[in-house]
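Notes from the pairing session

We agreed to fold both candidates in a single pass and log them together. This is the raw record for the first candidate, unedited. Please don't reformat it; downstream parsing expects exactly this layout.

Candidate A
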Amino acid sequence: MTVSSGVGSWPGSEAEEYAEAVRVVLGEAPDLPYLPELPERGAEAGMIGRTLATIGDLGFDLQPAGWRLTDTPGIDHRRARSLLAHDLDHLEEQTQDFHGVLKVQLAGPWTLAATVEKPRGDKVLSDHGARRELAQALAEGVAAHLDDVRRRVDAERVVVQLDEPALPAVLAGSVPTASGFGRHRTVHPPEVSEALGWVLERAGVEPWVHSCGRDAPWRLLRSAGARGLSGDLSVMGADDLDAFAEALEAGEWVALGIVPATDPDPEPTEKAVTEHVLRLLDVLGLEPDTVSDQLVITPACGLAGASPAWARRATELCRAVARNLSTTPPGDAT
């Protein structure tokens, strides 16, 4: 059965909006709900801040340029931890009768390395030892976070999704230095794969990786241990789609980001989105009934930039399309 889900982020900045986001996700994506992120609440609630909140072996603080490694956790790091605990409290309260599959999202090691600064400046990416230490600390943080979620929610399984929007730039050597005048050196694929492998190994039995940018290294991600791929279909070329087809043929999860993540004009119809997916499967030579159980329908990216009304509507649309694909008769992929 094809299911629906979301990438992670959600609009809103108030506590009551967070509680509402959890309710909508649980109600409209019941087969694969996720822990929402509301980055409008501040840096502590964004993708990087939330991920750093799971890391207990290193300290961080927030500077004008962003997050920085420190000897001990700063006040912003402690706030990020408190906010994550608060969000998990909401999730726990609203999932008392939930026993299905749940998804949580964290930034991957290379997006962290390209974003977080060393104590004396410049990105962790610039220092081989520092990026290694950060990746290993993240692996332990992911495992601890997963254990915490399992204690709170009686889920059948918890899927961990690593977000790696910066990975293509890391591989291309296009991450800017602190001055903005240079670029950090390319990190070679074997090192990229090794660090990803440490984290993916601690992320449960079927970890995912999400990237909604261009040139994501899907095959490298699979070889590093990803058992689910999630991306924005609108930016994918033929090679990306071939990599997704290979994952489906291997029996792995594939999340198709096909519903607009920001308010569209005009809004796509349920029929149009369903037919888009069916045409795609036909081009890839895949029968809907043979891959249906591995497909997940999601928005193209996070919903933080959408209006609350469209965030809800996009979630409803994903669910409707997933339901349509689950009931498509064999041979209708045209």
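Candidate B (folded immediately after A)
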Amino acid sequence: MGSGGSGFGSVVRAPFQGRAWREFGYLMVGLPLSTLYFSLAITGVSLGAGLLVTFLGVPVLAGVLAMCRGFGRVERARVRGMLGQELAEPAPIRAEKGGAIAGMAALLKSGSAWRHVLYSLIHFPWAVFAFCVALTFWVYGWAMLLYPLWFWVFPAFTDQPGLQLFQNGDSYTFYLDSPVAIAAACGTGLVLTLATPWVVRALTTVDRLLVSGLLGPSRLAHRVSELETDRGVVVDTAAADLRRIERNLHDGAQARLVALAMDLGMAKEKLTEDPRAAARMVDEAHGEVKIALQELRDLARGIHPAVLTDRGLDAALSSVASRCAVPVRVAVDLPARPAAAIEGIAYFTVSELLQNVSKHARARTAGVDVWKSGDRLLIQVADDGVGGADADGAGTPAGSGLAGLAERLDAVDGLLVVDSPAGGGTTVTAELPWRAV
């Protein structure tokens, strides 16, 4: 009931909202601008193509490409200012070597520049259509809606009783002059006025698609940018892991081994003077050796566990679950083993999520499910704890927590989805590409 009322209210408010007027203004301004773009682009391309039999065609075409890129800047600014859509800038054109010739060659080889030319040519007929449809709906809608306020103009200043809609020679003429006809005109205007913002919005959606598809970065350039970002995340993650390993070695096993060497040295000195004290010190050193070995095993397991290499995800995740502070159910249903890199990422993802369960969830039980769906490896870790997990990593260092885990997965085309309502437990679903061995 409430949603229906809200939907009706949005329809009634739409003609009076600033967004509707900005979108209408966008289409009205679009026609003269598109006419200018089309005229200059078609003239320049025709002239440049005709002059290609001489060298003059090359600078003319290069100039047209540069001009159309300028048109693209204007259009992106219009979309940002009037439609509120942020658009990424296309990659700048860089010449391999300096000089005007190299710059023209770079322009002529730029797919982005040619897409700007294509936009300047194909947007003109669409701008004409959108302008006519939007203006017709807008003018006729408001004119008919307000007809009861201005129909008196006809009998007052003309010899007609109202707005003439139809005339069949001299035998019959239909005017909007009766109360019923005036009410029908007002009702028709109301329908058109309420429909106009949605018609205009549909027209501007096509403009958004044209601008983002032709005036923004290409899919390849966007993908390259994503890969560069992901590479930076991978490098930062690897550097952080190396620092963690170095810190753990320095503060843990290395410090313990240094103390052990000192204790053995002291035991050696006391061996002849006080054999019992020396034996006690050797016994203590033996205990330290065991602790140091366990720390080194834990550290090696954190780098890459042997059980994962030897027996796969099922056994490795069961081993991780056994060290969790709460009982964990593990279910792994995979038709085969994925690639070692994907196995490793899946293992450390579950390991980190179970650490979160142990430290923060205050849960009684947890569950780990791993399965294959299509060409994706899916991992789900759920607990019955307090919920409220911070999926955005607000207030945490970059690369840490769930936000850092999401960045690591994104670096390999993975995905992390967190569902953690306060008091309702936490369910984290991770998705990785399936890459077979």
